[in-house]
Amino acid sequence: MRISFLCGLAFLLIGLLPAQAGTWQPSPGQVQVSIWPGAVPDALSAQKTESVVAATGHGGWMQINDVSRPTMTVYPAKNMNTGAAVVVFPGGGFRVLAIDLEGTEICDWLTSRGITCVLLKYRVPGGNDYWDDKCNCRITPKIPRALQDAQRTIKLVRSKAQELHLDPKKIGVIGFSAGGYLVAQTSNIVTPTYKPVDAADALSSRPDFAIALYPGHLCRSGVLEASIHVTKATPPTFLLQAWDDPVDSICNSILYADALHHAGVPTEVHFFAKGGHAFGLRDKDHPVAAWPTLVESWLKEIGVL
How many alpha carbons fall within 13 Å on the CB side of residue 285? Predict the structure, then answer.
């Protein structure tokens, strides 16, 4: 059954992505596909070559640099299929992607719980579109390339719900750090940020549920980032962060949680005293390590599991 699934998946979307020297490749048996059928929208004219390096900290993690060709990799649910799917947005400050720490390891957990995992390798084409060195401050880019990739991937997963044995009303997202910002963006920005390329783009890119861990870029000079307009249509949301986060201030989660609350959006929020930043599933020394169990209980409460 698994073999037939993977064979069918080879013809999913645009087809298999040819392996290129230096680019990230999933583990054997997984299928990585391009999310754009032709030219990538708003591509930069000059591109560095994608590379994968070993980064230090958190026990070591795999860092992808200079992604210009975004892909998605589908990890089928194990043992049982709940019909739910989660698109994963790794963090990395929109400069790099923490593809294992906040990507493949998250998929291993999700699939073990009967959830199909879709890992998005979104564009981080060198530099940082979300940071202005002149003012030393976060900005909102004129061309939101990462958001384009995120919107497109959610639509693709929803369009392939039948082939992937999914409930099209149980397509959620989870993101970490910069990926947490993509969670907030996809939850609230449903106007397409690119021109339609095929029938999948007629579908909604709004997720059915959203999970953001230690999100960044939401707190701008003490107020919520201006492009995030929370409404009653915003999906149920789970937020979690540590008070001692040295990278993204806890005000990111506080401001977003407050906006969700005032809009009447079902929201669960957890703050922990210790945990720092980018702990993923690797913190075993603090209570924050319980976050996967909290997420699973929340998914049951909102009817996803």
Answer: 5
The CATH code of the domain at 2-38+48-301 is 3.40.50.1820
H or E element that contains 68: none
Question: How far is it, in rounded angstroms, from Cα 180 to Cα 74?
Answer: 20
Do residues 241 and 250 make contact, with C-beta atoms less than 8 angstroms apart?
yes
Pairing of strands 31-34, 71-75: antiparallel
Q: d(Cα 305, Cα 302) in Å, to the nearest integer?
A: 8
Residue 11 pLDDT: 35
Work out whether the CA dihedral 78, 296, 203, 103 comes out positive or negative: negative
Per-residue H/E/C for 74-137: EECCCCCCCCCEEEEECCCCCCEEECHHHHHHHHHHHHHCCCEEEEEECCECCCCCCEECCCCE
Interval 72-95: pLDDT, tens: 999 999 999 999 999 999 999 999
Digit-coded pLDDT (tens) for 175-188: 999 999 999 999 99
Distance CA 179, CA 93 (A): 8
Low-confidence winner among 47-56, 207-216, 225-234 (lowest mean pLDDT) = 47-56
Cα–Cα distance, 171 to 163 (Å, whole number): 14
Closest CA to 187 of 230, 222, 155: 230
d(Cα 165, Cα 204) in Å, to the nearest integer? 19
User: pLDDT, tens digit, for every residue of 3-47?
Assistant: 333 434 433 434 444 445 578 999 988 889 999 999 999 998 877
The candidate with the shortest Cα–Cα distance to 213, out of 110, 145, 149, 292, is 292
Query: Does pTM surpass 0.85?
Result: yes
Question: What ranges do the domains of the chain cover?
Answer: 2-38+48-301
| Type of residue numbered 118 | V
Q: Which residue has the tokens 């870029």?
A: 217
